[in-house]
Design goal:
Elements lengths: L5 H7 L4 H13 L7 H15 L3 H22 L4 H8 L9 E8 L12 E9 L9 E5 L5 H6 L3 H9 L2 E5 L18 H4 L4 H18 L7 E6 L1 H12 L6 E5 L12 H13 L1 H15 L5 H10 L9 H17 L16 H10 L7 H14 L18 H10 L20 H12 L7 H6 L4 H8 L3 E6 L17 E6 L17 H27 L1
Parallel strand pairs: 3-4, 3-5, 5-6, 6-7, 7-8
Antiparallel strand pairs: 1-2, 2-4
Length: 542
């Protein structure tokens, strides 16, 4: 498919465009998600015969099916740092941890034969500093392989000696090695139906309870931790299972993103760059018009291939835009004050470094060229790349799982703002729902999460109901706009830092950490110490 020349594609596009659009869209969503590529192609051939299509039109349809698939994946996907971590990092267990597997029930809420079967849920454990009766710190795993989260969450290991804590990282069902139906787990909606937040939280509850019993340490207090979606899970776990966890540290937890203005994420990304340099912001904002001036013909695509140092001939301006957009978004999320390698190796304050590249670029250069130079910092800070794969569609472990979640309960509407520097886009629930229906046969439930865990007016509810939750956020992180940014009560507190980024506080401490980050972590430790002291005092009096 990739060998099709731009000339041939342009020739084929002479067919009526409306027919192509309707035909390809209808064909793509007529196939169940379980079908293999050869089955889809067979269906295309059968359909082409009925429609009396010529061979070139048939060939173009198969080509388009491949591209529609990738574009629909990007449409469904809410930016997920966790999934990109799986793609760019080796999955190795960090030193000091040992992998274990817990026999977990597939369905915690219904009693039927299939749901009563068990699967083996992976969790990591570090007992180096622990003694019986001491606290247990649990990371509530989110959308990815648990090894990656343990590698990037050094805070728990840093504070474990002070508390003599046992550290446990639990993998989320349907991710990593924790597949309820093995290699078939993503093959059918009858399996995917067991993948939801309620089941995942119940997994954590049963595993933690069983672990405490097996360790003969039922009296050990449990504090849950999580970052990003894992942070939301930690907060929800504390609300749902207060008898199991005495408190939660929810870092960069966008529990209110479901009801936050859709353009808030985009506006936050743009603000990060605009605060550094107005010129930088304007250059990135203006590069999209320059990109749109290119057409998908041979000359334009070859020119873009050269400009963006693509390893292969660029097949569409769509891929160039997506490549640029991803660089600016993920750099904002990982705008850490020290060198880091969350997704890719990046310098300290990478947004500032990107803008420095743009501002110091030779005069007379196009905005698109300057945007490319800045984006190259994200993709090639290490200097090892000789070319870029702009159409990288390599498999990201877990993408089908997150796609399912965004089609069922994790309905997070995102759109661009009026002042956005990013490529303009809008959210359309109707189109999203129709696509999910065709893809999985399900209709998204946009109010599922807010009905189960709260949303509008949550501060009034939690003020009287909840307790012992730390919501930590960094305003450099675009997801911060969907988190809790003000104290709700004396024990549900928001620790907000102006220069913090995506769950920065959960990363391991370094010698280069700024004072404000050191202070934030110190506050978190002091609050958790208070929870634990109160727990032991109450336990003695019981």
């Amino acid at each position: 498919m990739r060998a099709v020349s731009p000339v041939r594609i342009q020739t084929l596009s002479a067919y009526p465009s409306g027919r192509f659009k309707d035909l390809v869209t209808a064909m793509r969503f007529r196939f169940p998600s379980e079908m293999r590529a050869w089955q889809i192609i067979a269906k295309v051939i059968e359909y082409s015969r009925k429609q009396r299509m010529g061979p070139f039109l048939l060939f173009f349809m198969v080509f388009m099916l491949r591209n529609v698939e990738s574009m629909m994946n990007s449409y469904f996907a809410t930016p997920s740092v966790a999934l990109l971590m799986q793609k760019h990092k080796p999955k190795t267990i960090p030193p000091g941890y040992k992998a274990h597997y817990f026999p977990q029930v597939i369905d915690h809420f219904n009693h039927h034969p299939q749901g009563s079967k068990v699967f083996y849920q992976k969790y990591l454990m570090n007992k180096k500093y622990w003694h019986k009766g001491a606290p247990i710190f649990v990371y509530t795993g989110n959308e990815g392989h648990i090894d990656s989260f343990a590698q990037n969450t050094g805070f728990l290991l840093d504070i474990a000696p002070k508390f003599h804590a046992l550290i446990v990282f639990i993998e989320h069902r349907f991710y990593g090695e924790s597949m309820p139906f093995g290699n078939k787990s993503y093959n059918s909606v009858k399996y995917l139906g067991y993948m939801n937040t309620g089941q995942a939280l119940a997994d954590f509850a049963f595993l933690i309870t069983s672990l405490k019993q097996n360790l003969s340490s039922e009296a050990s207090p449990v504090v849950v931790f999580g970052g990003s979606h894992g942070g939301s899970l930690a907060a929800w776990f504390r609300l749902k299972y207060p008898h199991i966890a005495i408190g939660a540290l929810a870092s960069s937890a966008p529990i209110l993103q479901f009801i936050t203005p859709p353009d808030s994420f985009d506006a936050a990304v743009s603000k990060d760059y605009k605060d550094v340099s107005l010129n930088c912001y304007n250059v990135i904002r203006g590069c999209w018009d320059e990109l749109d001036s290119y057409s998908n013909n041979t000359h334009s695509l070859l020119e873009l291939t050269d400009t963006f140092k693509s390893c292969k001939i660029v097949g569409s301006t769509y891929y160039v835009g997506s490549w640029l957009n991803a660089a600016f978004i993920y750099t904002a999320m990982a705008n850490y004050p020290t060198k880091a390698n969350l997704l890719k190796p990046l310098p300290a304050y990478p947004v500032q470094e990107m803008c420095k590249i743009i501002d110091e670029y030779p005069k007379g250069a196009s905005k698109l060229n300057r945007a490319f130079a800045a984006a190259s910092l994200y993709y090639n800070y290490s200097g090892t790349q000789t070319c870029f794969d702009l159409e990288d569609e390599s498999y990201i472990e877990g993408i089908r799982g997150w796609d399912w979640q965004t089609c069922t309960e994790m309905i997070i509407p995102l759109s661009s703002s009026k002042e956005s520097m990013l490529k303009k886009y809008s959210y359309n629930y109707t189109l999203h729902a129709e696509a999910c229906k065709r893809r999985y046969g399900v209709t998204p439930r946009p109010y599922q999460m807010t009905t189960e865990y709260g949303g509008i007016g949550i501060e009034k509810v939690l003020k009287r109901f909840g307790s012992n939750i730390i919501f930590s956020s960094g305003m450099q992180d675009p997801w911060s706009r969907g988190s809790v940014l003000k104290n709700i009560s004396a024990s549900i507190v928001a620790l907000v830092t102006e220069k913090g980024a995506h769950h920065l506080d959960l990363r391991a401490a370094t010698n280069e950490d700024p004072d404000w980050l050191i202070m934030q972590r110190k506050q978190e430790v002091e609050i958790m110490q208070k929870w634990i002291d109160e727990y032991y005092e109450d336990y003695k009096q019981a």
